[in-house]
Structures are given as C-alpha cells and as structure tokens.
Design a protein that fits this description.
The complex is a heterodimer. Chain A is of the alpha/beta class. Chain A is 36% helix and 25% strand. A 6-stranded mixed beta sheet of chain A has the order 5-6-7-3-8-9, sandwiched between helices. A 3-stranded antiparallel beta sheet of chain A has the order 2-1-4, covered by helices on one side. In chain A, 37% of the residues are buried. Chain B has 2 domains: 60 residues, no CATH class; 202 residues, Orthogonal Bundle (MetI-like fold). Chain B contains 13 helices and no strands. In chain B, helix 5 runs antiparallel to helix 6 and helix 12 runs antiparallel to helix 13. The longest helix of chain B has 38 residues. Chain B starts with a helix and ends with a helix. Classes of the chains: A alpha/beta, B mainly alpha. Chains A and B meet through strand 5 and helix 3 of A and helix 9 and helix 10 of B.
Chain lengths: 259, 279
C-alpha cells in the first residue's frame, strides 16, 4: 500500500549559545495508510522532536517530508496530535474542550458537531458534557482528548506517550480501547512509547531509534498469531516474548554504550 | 479555604439526609468560629471608638488635634446638609474609576503586544522597570505644568501610579501559561492569535483579577496625590484645605471617608471576582 507520509534523511539540531545538540540524524522511513507504527528508543533520544517535525510544528534542518494525499494534492495532510497529558482546559466544559479544534479552524458545521456528539455518546461521555475536566477520571479525560483530536478528522494520528499519565490497569484498558477505536475508524497511527509491551501489542511495525543523535537502528515488523486482533489478547501470543527480548536487547546495547 | 470547607460539609449532608453526630458537631463548631471572629471584629472597632470619644471628652487627648467620633459625625452631618460632601466624594470616585479603567485597558493592550512580540518586550523591558520604580509623585508637578490644574491632571496622576506595575504583572501572567497548552493549540492548527484567545487570556484571569485589586488602590493613591496639588474639589483637596486652616476635624473625616471608599472598591471587585469564578 502507498505511504501516506515519507521521511527522507531528516536531520535536526537544537542550538544554544553554549553549542549545538544534534537530536536527529539521517532519519528515513515511511508510514503506510492504515498502518500502526510504533517508535521506541532510549529516553531523551529525540522522539518528541521527530513527532513535532512530522506534525509540522518544527521545520527539519535537513531532509524532506513527502506527502501522498489520497486526492493527489500536495497539501500537508491533516494530522492529529495527542500530547502526553490531556491538557483539557479547566475554564471550559468537556463539550467546549472537545470542539476547541473546530473552533480554531472555523469548522463548526452541523455535521462536525453531530460527529462530536456521536463520539461523546459512543465513549459514554454524554452525561459529562457540561462538567469540568477536574470532575472526570483519568481514562475519561483521555477519551475526551481523543475526541478533541478526532473532531478534525485527521488522516494520521500522532501519539506522544499518550497513556503515560495513567495508572497501569487503566492504561491497559484505555490503550486497547483507544487503539481499537482508531483502527475501527480506519486511521493511520504513529505512536511514541517507552513501554515495549505496549509497542508490541499495538503496532504493526516498530522502529527503534538509537540514543542521541538518533538514527533508525532497526525496523521490526510485528506478526502475531492471534484468534482476534485485540491489543489485550496479543500479550498472550506465542511470539510476544520473542519480540520483547529482541527489543530489549537492541535498547540495552545502546544503554551499555552510554555507561 | 473556609468557604471550601463549608461547601464540602453541605455536600456531605446532601448525600446523607440525616447528618451524623460528628457532622452536626463540626457544623456547630464552624458556626461558633464564624460568630467569634465577627464579634471580635466589631468589638475592636467599638473599643477603639469608645476610648477615642472618652479620651477626647475627658481631655486625655486633645480633640483639637485628634478630633473625636462625635465631632466627626457632627461635621459630616453639616457637610451632608449642604450636599457639598457628596460633590467631593463623587469627584474623587469619578476620577479614581476613570483612572482605574484606563489603566486596565492600556495595560491589557500593551501586555498583549509585548506577548506577541518577544523583540518588543526585550527592547522595552528596562524602560518599564525604570518607570515602575520611579516615585510617580515626582512627576505630579510636571503634569500640572503640562496639563494645568483640573480633572485631566488628576486622572493622569492616578494612571501614572498604577500603569507600569500593571503592565508588568499582566505580561508576566501571560508568560506563565503552560507551554504544552500552547503546543496543543498549534497541533490543532491554531495560530498565535488562537493561542492568545483560547489559552493565554482565559488562563490568566486569576492574575488579571489579582492585579486589578492592587490597581484600584494605586489609582486612588494617585488621584489623592493629584488632588493635593491641583484641585479645588475632591477628598484630597478637603484634606489639604483642612490641614492648611487647622480644621483637623475635616481632615480626619475625609480620611475616614477614604477608608470607606477603599473598602467599597475592594468589596466590589471581590464580588465581580466571585461572579467570574462561579461561571
């Protein structure tokens, strides 16, 4: 299938008066339409910088990003970005929070609002639409943040450790829940995570970045034999342990070098 | 804090229709505490007025210099009869409110521009710091020469006292907003303008309100300084006039009226603050 977005030789450095820090060096990969891609790497290796570049918030210093829109246009595809924290605004109700993106883009059309209302119903947030974020549990806030992202109907979703603020049990449920919903909606997803089992259970392919300056160390396609494709069940797949050890070895080699 | 405690207590009683003994005891203690505080507040004032009055009547303190509550009331009643006092109070109130509103508008606009442009804020920073530290009463004689005596000069004096501190506070408040919240706006396709309207401004409301409370006091200070130097009307003029003709009853009456005005402003702003927070 065609790549929805293609990175070629991306490089990026941070500059300060004390000197230059190379964050990314010669990064090349593509994301296929409908694919779930996970990026793992040691902490501080520049994963978030990579996401910011893909999202168009930072311009790469070297290399190019090519975009293949389904309609053939060269316009940057609409990309949804979920940050580490939900960042729901306390001065807005849940409903006002989830329509924030529509408001900013002046897209408060009837069908979009109907879509948002449908999502609020599907995610059992209907009762809470006029509540403030502080009255919701962590999992519910995460769902509200997802609705806020989906309201703009992005083609590609970027998730920057979106579940790291949740406790372990909620995290398993919410990550499975949200990934199923994203898959059901036929979206493409790129997720950054520290959690190796999360990466294996959610992704079709894993990209391992080295420590800084980050380069693509290895790409591992994940093939799990499963009765059904739910992320929770995938942790019991026979290949799960194999992939886990493989990733662990790649990442700890890097840590060893650093020590 | 006390208000919050009270709120959670009443929520508890809502959930449990029959409050437990401990809850009833808690509510009772809370009510007694409130009464105790209220009683002592009034009793202190009462004691102060009582000793003042007795001291003046028995000659322990010189009522020519220190006046007394009964003399103040008598003078106030006389001033009320020819309505002149209302004119003086009204002028001071008017000048203070106009200065305060202008300070609010000018500092909001300036702080917004400074937030938009890092270059502008870096260029202007030393000037703002100097103007903020400068004793503004030093400028008052200049205002009189430039603008003459009258309402304009007094309003400018009121503005000058509050303005620069207010700009600095507003700007600092704007800058303190969470960087990641701004990133969220940009990931949703928003511009810097959206970031300002959706995050910076609503997120700074508490700081804006706190600064506003300080500003109303400072505007009153500036207006009184202005009236000392350049007025024929207003409470500041009454104070200066009273001291020049050794009518200290008049001076102290005006000071007490200023206390009441300051309290009124503060309470008014608190009321507005509560309404905004409840929304």
């Amino acid at each position: 299938m065609e790549n929805i977005i293609e990175l070629k030789n991306i490089g990026y450095s941070y500059h300060s008066l004390q000197g230059e820090t190379v964050a990314l060096k010669d990064i090349s990969f593509g994301v296929k339409k409908g694919e779930f891609l996970a990026v793992v790497g040691p902490s501080g290796c520049g994963k978030s910088t990579l996401l910011s570049i893909i999202a168009g918030l930072l311009a790469p210093e070297e290399g190019t990003i090519t975009v293949n829109n389904p309609d053939g246009s060269l316009r940057y595809p609409r990309i949804g970005y979920m940050l580490q924290h939900d960042h729901l605004f306390e001065w807005r109700t849940i409903y006002q929070n989830v329509i924030l993106g529509l408001e900013i883009n002046h897209m408060m059309t009837e069908e979009r609002i109907a879509y948002v209302n449908q999502l609020l119903k599907d995610y059992n947030l209907e009762k809470f639409r006029n509540k403030r974020p502080s009255e919701l549990s962590g999992g519910m806030k995460q769902r509200a943040a997802l609705i806020r992202t989906l309201a703009l109907e992005p083609q590609l979703l970027l998730l920057d450790e979106p579940f790291s603020a949740l406790d372990y049990q909620t995290r398993l449920f919410v990550s499975a829940d949200i990934c199923n919903l994203i898959r059901a909606a036929g979206k493409t997803m790129l997720i950054i995570t520290h959690d190796l089992s999360e990466a294996i259970s959610l992704a079709d392919r894993i990209i391992i970045l080295s420590r800084r300056p980050a380069v693509v160390k290895q790409e591992i396609p994940i093939r799990l034999t499963l009765p059904d494709d739910s992320p929770l069940a995938s942790r019991n797949a026979p290949e799960f342990q194999y992939y886990f050890n493989l990733l662990w070895k790649e990442l700890s080699e890097d840590e060893g070098q650093e020590a | 804090m006390k208000v919050k405690k009270h709120k959670s207590a009443s929520q508890d009683t809502l959930e449990k229709p029959i409050p437990s003994d401990r809850q009833a005891l808690y509510l009772e203690l809370h009510r007694r505490h409130k009464l105790f505080v209220a009683f002592w507040r009034f009793f202190l004032l009462f004691l102060f007025l009582l000793f003042w009055e007795l001291g003046a009547n028995t000659g322990k303190i010189d009522s020519f210099f220190f006046s007394s509550p009964s003399r103040i009331l008598k003078l106030f009643w006389e001033l009320c009869k020819d309505y002149s006092i209302f004119m003086h109070i009204g002028i001071t109130l008017f000048e203070t409110v106009v200065s305060f509103l202008l300070v609010f508008i000018i500092s909001l606009v300036t702080a917004t521009l400074l937030w938009y442009s890092t270059k502008l804020s870096e260029i202007l920073e030393p000037y703002l710091v100097i103007l903020n530290s400068l004793p503004k009463s030093a400028l008052a004689p200049l205002f009189i020469v430039w603008l003459g005596t009258g309402t304009t000069t007094i309003i400018v004096a009121g503005i000058s006292v509050a303005l620069f501190g207010s700009i600095i506070s507003f700007y600092t408040g704007f800058k303190q907003n969470d960087e990641e919240k701004l990133t969220l706006i940009y990931t949703l396709g928003g511009s810097k303008r959206d970031a300002f309207h959706k995050v910076v401004l609503p997120g700074s409301v508490p700081i804006l309100l706190a600064t506003t409370k300080v500003n109303i006091g400072l505007a009153l200070v500036g207006v009184i300084i202005g009236e000392f130097l350049a007025a024929r009307r207003g409470l500041g003029y009454l104070i200066i006039y009273g001291s020049q003709v050794f009518q200290l009853n008049l001076v102290i009456t005006s000071v007490i009226l200023l206390c009441l005005i300051a309290m009124g402003f503060y309470k008014g702003l608190q009321w507005i603050e509560n309404r905004i927070e409840r929304k």
